[in-house]
Amino acid sequence: MFGRKYLIWVAAVAVLAALHLFVSACGDDDDDGATRAFSDDDDSTAFTSDDDDDDNADDDDDDTADDDTADDDDTVDDDDTADDDTDDDTTDDDTGDDDTGDDDTGDDDTGDDDDTFVENYGLDFDVTDAEYSRFLDRAVIAAHHPTNAVVTLDFETNAASSVALDEKPISISVSPDGKHAAVNHGDLISYVDLVEMKVEDTFTPTKDLGDIVLAQDYIYGFPTLDGWTRIVCIKISDGTETLHTGSKDIRQQSKAKLHPNLDWLYTTEVENWPRGISKFSVTTGTAAYLYDEPKHGEYNFCAKIWIAPDGKRLYTRCMHIFTSTDDQETDIGYIGDLTEDGADELTELDVSPASDGAIVAILDKAVGSPYNSRDIMAFDPDLLTKTHHWKLPLYEGESNDYEINGDYVFVSNDGTRAYVIAMVADDAFAPADKDQQTFVFDLE
């Protein structure tokens, strides 16, 4: 009997052991399945957009994320709406993708971008240089393709008028009253009536010129060669040419702006280092050197300046701001900087002629800067801080997206609009009517 009971006991133990092993094996399979599901979910979330970084803690719902019913399972998870135009994530820099038309989404101090523009047109000509006529409330453009021409352009409607030129333009300048333009061809200058849209006269300077400035009665040209040289001063009424007077030459390839009082020229150096600024009187027609900035070399003027419509400030490409006065002791005195973290240089700038004096600029790419010439910013004239930030869209090519970079910016006469002329990246091979474009942004 003992042997039989023993055998029965041994058999029972064996059965229990087998059952235990079976249960354990089933449990291990479940664990492995759960591990695989978690891993698969990890792999899937690695390829979602930045907007899909909300914690998807519900593992059981992960496999239904691609179903239309997934949105109903989690009312706080915006994963499935992040890729469409209903994304309300205000911390996302791409707030312009919601096409709400509300430019103010990028107007606060959060640093959000706003891609929203009011109008966008393609140009059927190539832009060499551009300025703005306050009289016409239009851009005045030197175009070189498909024909050489001066074009006046209405940014709001894309309406344009043009007059043909005999030679390819290099640069253009608009008169203070906005009714004429001087177009530099290097060794020839065309004087254009912007009201009648006709070439009124031509002049042949004795030097090859780069930048030019058109005053009411004179054209001032800045030679591209000769090292240290002199400003070419051409009297419009009879074509008489003189060279500037005074103790100092200018450096070749210098650039200049005429002060709104029409009495002074400010010139900046391109080649020399440090790049300084000089002031000239033009009250007698022929330019006369007055003086340089008070502390030469303390600030870099970065080869480009713009003057506020009221004549009180000079803005530089390096985002420094200086005074403009009739007293040498206070003239070209440092005021401050346009301030935005990471922004160091500008491509172009314009100041609103309206009473608010808003400053609008196209940024430039600098070493270590997150910005480039796709970034358009507006600044408060008193606080000097950013009020708007727009980013030009990408051009959708056949196989890639390409950057559209801002070249020129202007503010409308009433101060409510910012106008940008931009160019698609060279390697995009965009069609002729898309290669260069205009954008209109709302400043209100």
Fraction of residues in β-strands: 35-45%
State the strand order across the main sheet. Answer: 1-31-30-29-28
* Helical content class: 10-25%
Q: pLDDT below 50 for ≥5 consecutive residues: which ranges?
A: 4-10, 19-111
What is the number of helices? 3
Shape: globular
Distance between the termini: 104 Å
Largest sheet descriptor = 5 strands, antiparallel
**Measured on Cα atoms, how large is the radius of gyration?**
33 Å
Quick check: average pLDDT? 80
Describe the structure.
The radius of gyration is 33 Å and the shape is globular. It has helices at 2-45, 59-62, 70-73; strands at residues 119-123, 126-133, 138-145, 149-153, 160-164, 171-174, 180-184, 189-193, 198-203, 209-214, 218-223, 228-229, 232-235, 241-243, 250-251, 255-258, 264-268, 277-281, 288-292, 305-307, 313-316, 320-323, 334-337, 345-351, 359-364, 375-379, 386-391, 394-396, 401-411, 417-424, 436-442. It is mainly beta and 444 residues long. Residues 4-10 and 19-111 have low confidence and may be disordered. The strands form eight sheets. A five-stranded antiparallel beta sheet has the order 1-31-30-29-28, with no helix packed on it. It has a four-stranded antiparallel beta sheet with strand order 2-3-4-5, with no helix packed on it. The protein has a four-stranded antiparallel beta sheet with strand order 6-7-8-9, with no helix packed on it.
Task: Draw up the topology in text.
Elements (H helix, E strand, L loop, with lengths): L1 H44 L13 H4 L7 H4 L45 E5 L2 E8 L4 E8 L3 E5 L6 E5 L6 E4 L5 E5 L4 E5 L4 E6 L5 E6 L3 E6 L4 E2 L2 E4 L5 E3 L6 E2 L3 E4 L5 E5 L8 E5 L6 E5 L12 E3 L5 E4 L3 E4 L10 E4 L7 E7 L7 E6 L10 E5 L6 E6 L2 E3 L4 E11 L5 E8 L11 E7 L2
Antiparallel strand pairs: 1-31, 2-3, 3-4, 4-5, 6-7, 7-8, 8-9, 10-11, 11-13, 12-15, 13-14, 16-17, 17-18, 18-19, 20-21, 21-22, 22-23, 24-25, 25-26, 26-27, 28-29, 29-30, 30-31
